[in-house]
Every structure is written in C-alpha cells, then in structure tokens.
C-alpha cells in the first residue's frame, strides 16, 4: 500500500451514497440560513461563522468514508499532491514536487537545488483527525513556505484510519525520518497541524526515548533543530471541562466528535493515556529533555484551547494566539485569500514564516 492512501480499498455502499446525497442537499438548504444569520450576527466575521457552521454540520452528518470521498482520499500519491497543489499561485516556484523519498510514504514538496546534508529540511505532518487526507490548503501553505523561504520540504503521507490505526502512522513517520537520516540530513524542523501536531510530538518522543518494540519502528538518532505545531491535538481522551465546554458551540466540531475520531485512531483506553497518543499526559520532566525549541499556534475559540495553553506554558513553549480563530483556521483562511500578497499576510502564516526564518 505504500504510496497510496490506505482508503483506496474502500468504496461507498449504496446506502452511504444515498445518505451522502441527502446530507449534501441538507447542507445546501441550511447554507441559505447560515448566510442570512451570518450577515445578521456580529460575534464572528461572516465567513468564519459560515465556515464553522458548514464544517460542524458536515462532520456530524457524514461518516468518515463519506468525508474522505468528498476530500479526494481515493487519489493515489503523488497524483493527489499534483491535483491539489497545481492550482496554487506558488506551484511554479518549486522543484521535484511530488517525487517520492525512497520507498517510504514521504514526498518532496520542494528540494532546494544543490541541497547539502546540513541544509534545513522541513518535515510536514498534515491534520485531519487521523482519518482525512491532506487538503488543497495544506499544499497551498507548503508551496508558499517553499517558494518564499527557499527551503526543502517533505510531506508525510501517513496511513489513515480505520485501515491503519495506532501506531502505524507513527511508524510511517519514523520510516520517512530514518530515510532522511540515511540521506545525511542533519538539520530537520518538524511542522504539523492538528493530528499532525500529535505525530510531531510522537516522533520527538521516539527520537529521544526510543520507540516501543511493538511499534516496529526504526531507531532514530538526529534530534530535530526545532518544531512548530498549529492547533496540536494533545489529548485523545478529553473530558468536558474548561474550553471543551465553553467553546463547544464556537469551534468546528464538538468534544463528542473529537473523542470519536480519537477512538478510531486508538481504541484501547490504556494506550490513549500514554504520551504516544496523548502528549498532554506527559509530565514536565518527561517532555523537557525531549523537545527542541518550538512554537505553538492556536485559536482562542478552539475546544482544545485550554489544553494547548497549559501544555505550552508548563513546558515554556512560546505561544501565538490567532485572534478570534477556531481550530486550525489558517487552512481555510489562507486558501481563500485571492492574491499572493494577501496570503502572505494571513496572521498565523505570517507568524509561521517569521518563526521558521529564525530557525533555518
């Protein structure tokens, strides 16, 4: 299955197809109401309000196979990368886009011409609840980083649930990292959003402490130079407290949906409480020696906001709060900005660029 989304083995049943048709029809009908109410309400920017309503209704009314169908999970790599990235205004500025790294599930977004072993390489882990593939927005952001920083970037096409659950995505990530080590890469920066941020933490965990034997993951030796996480998913067994309650109606999904996705990735309660699955459970003494310098970007309207802030503050990781943003808002906001200059001014992306420039 290497090189393709594991979900290629899935096809929608007749029931799923009919149900998805009804769900999409309902979204169109509800959309009119969201547009009207979004125009009247004043608590959130119009588009952010409509986007939140659309996202929430979609994840609550469709199953993961239906959502993957909508997001194009059946396209094999690198065809998916080319399909999703070729419309970006930054596409023409990169080199070796979509080329596979050895026999792993890693692909170049850009490799700097004449790259030397000690030149920086960004390794990127996309979000999507461990079940959804990368979106066009992910590649738009990565292409913009590559074009404007002229830095080599690797995209991690890790396996998705339900066909590949914990710890397979961690093993996929470790195999890509090991291949980069074999190539002599010694200056690596890890970047991830949402579930991808969770995988960033798992990889740094394994690099410092070694992976459990049951993971069947290669040993890694090169400590990352830095990391950057956007809205990292740090706890897969969350409880209804704090921002999980206060932001329940403000974010893109509910705690019930979040915990459902978490159970699809890791179904065993004891495993969910480990640092491999829920980094927030790790003590300060545990994580301090394992983490290089880093930055976390988040939105105050996320249901995970309190957990992200608590984790970052006790580990003294710098935080950037994107004002008024729900979970992982950079994705949709960046892609819908119409010009290159407007994209580069997106607040979270601008901070991402500044931070990466400081560590490259």
UniProtKB/TrEMBL annotation:
<dbReference type="GO" id="GO:0016787">
    <property type="term" value="F:hydrolase activity"/>
</dbReference>
<dbReference type="InterPro" id="IPR050300">
    <property type="entry name" value="GDXG_lipolytic_enzyme"/>
</dbReference>
<dbReference type="InterPro" id="IPR029058">
    <property type="entry name" value="AB_hydrolase_fold"/>
</dbReference>
<dbReference type="Pfam" id="PF07859">
    <property type="entry name" value="Abhydrolase_3"/>
</dbReference>
<keyword id="KW-1133">Transmembrane helix</keyword>
<feature type="transmembrane region" description="Helical">
    <location>
        <begin position="20"/>
        <end position="40"/>
    </location>
</feature>
<protein>
    <recommendedName>
        <fullName>Alpha/beta hydrolase fold-3 domain-containing protein</fullName>
    </recommendedName>
</protein>
<keyword id="KW-0472">Membrane</keyword>
<dbReference type="InterPro" id="IPR013094">
    <property type="entry name" value="AB_hydrolase_3"/>
</dbReference>
<keyword id="KW-0378">Hydrolase</keyword>
<feature type="domain" description="Alpha/beta hydrolase fold-3">
    <location>
        <begin position="122"/>
        <end position="323"/>
    </location>
</feature>
<keyword id="KW-0812">Transmembrane</keyword>
């Amino acid at each position: 299955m290497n090189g393709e989304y594991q979900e290629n083995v899935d096809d929608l049943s007749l029931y799923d197809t009919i149900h998805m048709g009804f769900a999409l029809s309902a979204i169109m009908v509800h959309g009119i109401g969201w547009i009207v109410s979004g125009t009247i309400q004043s608590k959130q920017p119009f588009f952010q309000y409509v986007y939140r309503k659309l996202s929430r209704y979609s994840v609550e009314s469709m199953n993961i196979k239906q959502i993957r169908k909508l997001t194009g999970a059946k396209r094999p790599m690198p065809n998916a990368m080319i399909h999703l990235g070729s419309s970006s205004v930054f596409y023409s500025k990169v080199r070796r886009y979509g080329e596979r790294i050895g026999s792993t599930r890693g692909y170049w977004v850009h490799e700097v011409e004449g790259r030397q072993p000690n030149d920086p390489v960004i390794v990127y882990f996309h979000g999507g609840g461990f079940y959804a593939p990368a979106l066009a927005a992910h590649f738009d952001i990565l292409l913009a980083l590559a074009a404007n920083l002229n830095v080599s970037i690797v995209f991690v096409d890790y396996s998705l649930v339900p066909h590949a659950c914990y710890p397979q995505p961690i093993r996929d990530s470790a195999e890509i990292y090991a291949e980069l080590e074999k190539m002599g890469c010694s200056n690596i920066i890890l970047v991830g959003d949402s579930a991808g941020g969770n995988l960033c933490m798992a990889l740094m965990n394994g690099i410092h402490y070694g992976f459990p034997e049951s993971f069947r993951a290669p040993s890694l030796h090169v400590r990352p130079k830095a990391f950057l996480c956007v809205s990292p998913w740090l706890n897969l067994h969350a409880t209804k407290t704090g921002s999980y309650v206060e932001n329940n109606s403000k974010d893109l999904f509910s705690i019930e949906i979040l915990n459902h996705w978490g159970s699809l990735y890791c179904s065993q309660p004891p495993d969910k409480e480990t640092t491999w699955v829920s980094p927030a459970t790790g003590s300060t003494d545990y994580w301090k020696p394992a983490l290089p310098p880093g930055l976390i970007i988040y939105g105050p309207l996320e249901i995970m906001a309190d957990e992200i802030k608590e984790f970052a503050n006790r580990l003294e990781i710098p935080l950037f709060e994107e004002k008024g943003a729900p979970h992982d808002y950079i994705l949709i906001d960046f892609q819908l900005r119409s010009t290159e200059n407007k994209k580069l001014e997106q607040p979270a992306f601008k901070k991402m660029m500044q931070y990466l420039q400081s560590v490259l």
